[in-house]
Design the sequence.
């Protein structure tokens, strides 16, 4: 009996060690498990760098933060909210409206000034990086501008983008995947001590047929773009998983807070914003929801 008990104790120990190792692995590979032990960001220590596009910079939701003015960076975007909670020794937000993965390693010209390559802000002393990118590589908003229709049953964008058996948005998502992977590898090279969190896109469109004519897109296009955004988020999560990063899922908590929800509930504004925000972009409530998703990955309340 004693021999069997000892063997069981060894098995339990192996299982516990395995689970602890699995928790470490899952942080490194994209879950919201507790981050590994290491350099902390917060409480007056560490350096937090925020990279991203307009869903990160959050145009028009608050006062302008930093330069250039053309990046439309607000002082109440999710990086600022995360920083206010963490209180790092250094905080740098270089997100910029219109940014693509190319603008992480190359300068971005805006309508009012030039944003340096965003990766320039990532240094060896950096201990936390958040990354929100990919939507402009796929071109969601450039396509969406031509989708308005007077027929709520029409789907002009889906019909055009899937003509000939192709799926242009799916192809663009696939083409963006290696670019995101390369960016994550570069971040790790530049900041080997840093925790990295990829931030997904919130739920922009509702389940179902939408809210035509308030959002003048036909039911088919609503379904098509909703599905494409889901594919983009899945790709971002997979790249985070494969490249030692956490993933902040903002779509799940954002469900029911889409452009068709009540004005006092929505996280993302419609074509005619009811709250300060750019059209089809997060408002201040949405940026808070995105900040909460990041803090959840970091295991902070």
Sequence:
């Amino acid at each position: 009996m004693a021999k069997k008990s000892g063997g069981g104790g060894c098995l339990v120990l192996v299982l516990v060690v395995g689970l602890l190792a699995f928790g470490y692995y899952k942080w490194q590979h994209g879950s919201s498990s507790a981050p590994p032990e290491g350099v902390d960001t917060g409480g007056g220590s560490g350096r937090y760098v925020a990279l991203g596009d307009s869903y990160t910079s959050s145009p028009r939701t608050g006062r302008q933060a930093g330069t250039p003015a053309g990046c439309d960076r607000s002082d109440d975007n999710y990086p600022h909210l995360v920083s206010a909670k963490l209180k790092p020794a250094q905080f740098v937000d270089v997100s910029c409206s219109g940014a693509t993965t190319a603008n992480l390693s190359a300068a971005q010209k805006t309508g009012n000034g030039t944003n340096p390559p965003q990766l320039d802000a990532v240094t060896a002393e950096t201990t936390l990086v958040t990354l929100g990118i990919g939507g402009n590589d796929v071109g969601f908003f450039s396509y969406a501008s031509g989708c308005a229709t007077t027929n709520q049953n029409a789907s002009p964008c889906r019909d055009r983008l899937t003509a000939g058996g192709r799926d242009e948005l799916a192809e663009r998502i696939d083409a963006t995947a290696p670019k995101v992977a390369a960016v994550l590898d570069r971040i790790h090279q530049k900041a080997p001590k840093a925790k990295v969190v990829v931030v997904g896109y919130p739920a922009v469109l509702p389940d179902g047929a939408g809210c035509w004519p308030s959002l003048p897109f036909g039911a088919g296009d609503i379904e098509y773009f909703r599905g494409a955004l889901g594919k983009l988020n899945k790709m971002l999560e997979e790249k985070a998983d494969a490249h030692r990063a956490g993933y902040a899922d903002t779509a799940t908590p954002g469900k029911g807070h889409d452009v068709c929800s009540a004005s006092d509930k929505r996280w993302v504004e419609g074509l005619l914003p009811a709250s300060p925000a750019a059209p089809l972009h997060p408002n201040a409530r949405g940026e808070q929801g995105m900040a909460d998703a990041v803090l959840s990955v970091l295991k902070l309340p």
Q: What stands out?
A: The chain has a mean pLDDT of 89. The radius of gyration is 21 Å. Residues 102 and 179 are 8 Å apart (CA to CA).
